[in-house]
Task: structure prediction
Amino acid sequence: MKKALIVGAAGFVGSYLARELSDNQGMEVHATKLAHEQLEISGAKIHDLNILNKDEIIALLYEVRPDYIFHLAAQSSVSIAWKNPGLTIDINIKGSVNLMDAIRELFYKPRVLLIGSGEEYGHIREEETPIKEGNYLRPGNIYAATKVCQNMIAGIYTQAYDMKLMMVRAFNHIGPCQSPIFVISDFCKQVAEIEVGKKSPTMYVGNLAAKRDFTDVRDVVRAYALLIQKGKPGETYNVGSGHAHEIREILNLILSLSSKEIRVEVDPNKIRPVDVPIIEADITKLNEATGWMPNISLRQTLQETLDYWRARV
Ligand code: A2R
Result:
């Protein structure tokens, strides 16, 4: 039985990935969290790990000896990265290098998937859409720049030390359990609060004209599971749906799932200092490497995310 280690599993993606690996891929799953975080995943062994401490990483790798390592740990919010660039750089660059360097010191070569972001492409031009992995990178925010850096350093480690590192540029992923600091989860939570009278019938929104490529988190983790087994070391793969939707269109779809009359107002605090007008993935490379295509419709994801918040507010 193959052993998988998920680093940074207490966030949005970790539990979904653990379930995919144990239930659908038949792997033994180990998952890490920060000491202060709560995490229980049935069938997975949980370990405490801070990736800023390389000795902790080395000790864990020798204890677990994973065949596959998924690196999810990050400061993953664009808006928090504007407010706290130093911390974001420490976790997303220094932390990732600690992990790569600890893996380099092992006596064997596990297959590793490092998760980056579609934000790495930055200001995508009309003619570059849908965007391919080899496109010029123009990161437009601090978070994106840290993920570009992770990707470049991983390429160097792969070549210099003949390591089996694969890189992903994940476009927006959505679904039940996502933090409401992310746009779709925020919209669904606001609608659920309005429905039970916890909030006045006004939605506060940011830039509705931005176009983003959204994929259900369950499809995303299936792509990760396939890529770690079939991906080519040193290569970067887009993971997205292949279609960008205007945020306004998604908001309207969410509003149509509610019977309440809801007004929409722009909140200047939700507008980011620099926003990228369109981000859409070309997923040909991923599809050719693994056969993956998304299965879950946008409508289904929105319905389930709204129902998730309805059960909680
Ligand atoms: O920031 P927290 O307290 O939510 O903890 C996050 C954790 N994390 C760390 N783990 C180990 N050592 C650290 N120094 C450290 N700093 C933060 O990584 C959180 O529990 C986890 C990442 O989960 P999320 O932020 O929810 O990311 P998500 O949505 O699961 O995405 C996974 C990956 C990330 O690399 C994203 O940047 C990328 O996919 O899109």
About this structure: Residues 8, 10-14, 34, 37, 49-52, 72-76, 91, 95, 115, 117, 170 surround A2R (CB under 6 Å). The radius of gyration is 19 Å.
